[in-house]
Write a structure and sequence with these properties.
Blueprint (H helix, E strand, L loop, with lengths): L2 H21 L1 E2 L2 H21 L5 H24 L1 E5 L2 E5 L2 H23 L9 H23 L10
Antiparallel strand pairs: 1-3, 2-3
Helix pairs in contact: 2-5, 3-4, 3-5
Length: 158
């Protein structure tokens, strides 16, 4: 698939998720974990298909993934999780966007350091970075939802 087409599709998907969460949406398991799993899977697939990577590239990618999950988990703590109509809802807050900006700066700095230390560009799939960040967020929100005792919203028919 064309790299620019894939990047455009990912960007549209991420913007749609962020807008829905800014407005507030019912918290469903599929919406919570679907995008992070798909993006992370695509990122791992791109990483596995990259040529000429060595152990150092994999170590940098793994460290970046752990950092991304951790920053996503911090972001997940800022999401407002509440009950409406007997089911869980979620909404991004101003603090969520502040953490997004800080995370982008941290991940950008990490990426620059990795490249300066010799990491190949192919070992840094953007969709992997976005996916693991959303995965860290989803894990924290999912745990908070389960701890609330309120049921997740039912899945919408597609």
């Amino acid at each position: 698939m064309n790299v620019w087409l894939l990047a455009g599709l990912i960007a549209v998907g991420v913007v749609a998720v962020v807008i829905k969460r800014l407005i507030g949406e019912p918290l469903t398991v599929r919406d919570l974990f679907g995008p992070p799993v798909v993006l992370t899977g695509l990122g791992v697939w791109a990483l596995c298909g990259a040529r000429g990577l060595d152990g150092a590239d994999i170590a940098w990618a793994a460290t970046g993934a752990v950092l991304g999950v951790a920053l996503g988990a911090v972001r997940g703590r800022t999401v407002h999780v509440f009950e409406r109509g007997g089911v869980l809802w979620q909404r991004y807050t101003g603090r969520t966007f502040l953490v997004m900006v800080v995370s982008a700066v941290v991940m950008g700095g990490f990426g620059l350091l990795a490249v300066r230390m010799g990491m190949h560009e192919e070992a840094r799939p953007v969709h992997l970075s976005i996916g693991v960040g959303f995965l860290g967020e989803a894990l924290v929100i999912g745990r908070r939802g389960l701890a609330s005792g309120v049921r997740f919203a039912p899945e919408r028919k597609r």
